[in-house]
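Subject: two folds for Thursday's group meeting

Dear M.,

Sorry for the delay on this. The cluster queue was jammed most of the week, so I only got both jobs back this morning. I'm pasting them in the order they finished. Each block is the input sequence followed by the predicted structure tokens. Could you check whether the formatting survives your parser before we put anything on slides? The first protein is the one we discussed after the seminar.
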Amino acid sequence: MADVRPETMERITTKELADKFIEEQVAAVREQVGEDGKVLLALSGGVDSSVVAALLIKAIGDRLTCVHVNHGLLRKGEPEQVVKVFREELGANLIYVDAVDRFLDQLAGVDEPETKRKIIGKVFIDVFAEEASKLEGIGFLGQGTIYPDILESDGVKAHHNVGGLPEDLQFELVEPVKLLYKDEVRVVGTALGLPDSMVYRQPFPGPGLGVRCTGAITRDRLEALREADAIVREEIGKMEQTPWQYFAVIPDIQSTGIKDGKRYMGWPVIVRAINTVDAVTAESVELPWDMLCRIRDRIIETVPGVNRVMWDISNKPTSTIEWE
């Protein structure tokens, strides 16, 4: 399939259209891979890679090998959800790699944001390449490329999951959703039976919580962020109309607080909720005061090391959506 979406291609907005697309792509994958071909896929648990994984399982079954690398920077419950959905429910041939210590050891003491991103990317590539080298007979690499990726890179995709793999790992790409927009990918994911919590997952940066635990990442602050973020997402997720994106941040600063009648130093949690159309600009969402109070109380009472909760009401520009 060419990297240009035909003008006549119908928008996938219904289950019927999604079922037709799935049928066509299953046939296309089987033709490309052949009767004996094997495919390797980096499965992050994000929308695009999850939909591609489910589609490839439907097409070639256990001839797909998924590799899920837990780098310790995922949101609460996400690694467990990936294993449950794909290994237990869909019967995927899934390799789970616990690389938490490896990532966090490499990130220790590093406070420069771009350096952190590069370390996370490099270690991921190293881990994935190591797992790939253990497998035999893999000739194809599955990718969650979608159409906006192609448009933004003028037809040359800098693959967000495994870009920069060593040259001695030679694979032919399998990209079954590369002509779909994100909303269409979600419709296809639902038609494939993936849970809504995965299909309608909020946008999440490639470095994960690494850009929301600002400055040099420490394990205790990262764990506090994971717990606080889960509370923020649970409470805001109850809104009748949820914002486009909402999450927590813990910056690398402390302030004085009071606990058991004594002063102590603790971290602030910053609540961020925004609406946007294209992520180029974004507006802060007005959150109900009673909800903010519930978030505050739950975080202060249950998350160790936190003594303040703050609300980021800045727009993009001049701020960005993420803090790093």
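Second protein, same layout:
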Amino acid sequence: MNVVELSARASCNVELASLLPPDRTDLRETLGRYDDVRDRDLRGRDRRFLVESERCVRRFLRAQTFECESLLLTRRSFAAIADDVARHREIDAVFLADDDTMTTIAGYRLHGGALAIGRRGWRPPDAADLIARACAGSLPRLVVAEGVDHVDNLGSIVRSAACLGWSGLVLDERCADPLLRKTIRFSMGRVFEVPWGFSRDLRDALDRLRTGGVTVVGLELAPRAVPLSTIRVRGPIALVVGSEAHGISAETLARCDIVGAIPVAEPDGEARSLNVGVAAGIALYELSRPHSESA
């Protein structure tokens, strides 16, 4: 692993190559990936993603679900996560810089003194294994997301699932990418701790879950919905949440064994609904309570 101290010569016209020691031009391309990294697409052919903030980078390194290519850190952050960094022998380089130099390189200040670039596979993870494990009982609580395409909402759902002990997340192809910079940040790095995967046919996935003995609960303001607090489920459960604009589709809702709703105040007679990230957090908590495991 290369640990490279960058010369603190931050300026609006900083050239990344000039920050490297004269004998480290071999690392020019690696460091160059941090140039205005917030606005660059690291997902395309490069198959890479960005992690920001010391806490998220630490969780990324500890989970070891994806390879880490390189890190750009302040000395303080490096000292805080050095043990976690040492476990990753695949890392090409660790660049050390002061906060101002980091900001100039990355193009923004909200990096928290720690940036990491990870490598992803050619294809996103497939949900088939999660579904099979849920049916076998080894993943007793799944979240199923249909069309949740806002990164903040998806990140919030992942964070709630991790904190409340849910086992995994099944996404349809319209959902946001869990490895987008903002999704990772909103999840506080929990996307590396909760197993997730994409399903090309969510209806088929739900049919397989039900056949495998998993109770599918939809979260929706629908005519057949019952108050969420009254739902009692024994055994494996899958909670389905829908898109921000349209909720759960009729086809998916028809495959839910139970539909639950969160009663909301309507003092002025106007229909109201909760943000899907907030609603999912409430539902995950409610269905995690001991009464949801008893008949």
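Two things I noticed about the second structure. The longest strand covers residues 67-73. Residues 128-293 form a domain with the Alpha/beta knot fold (CATH 3.40.1280.10).

Cheers,
T.
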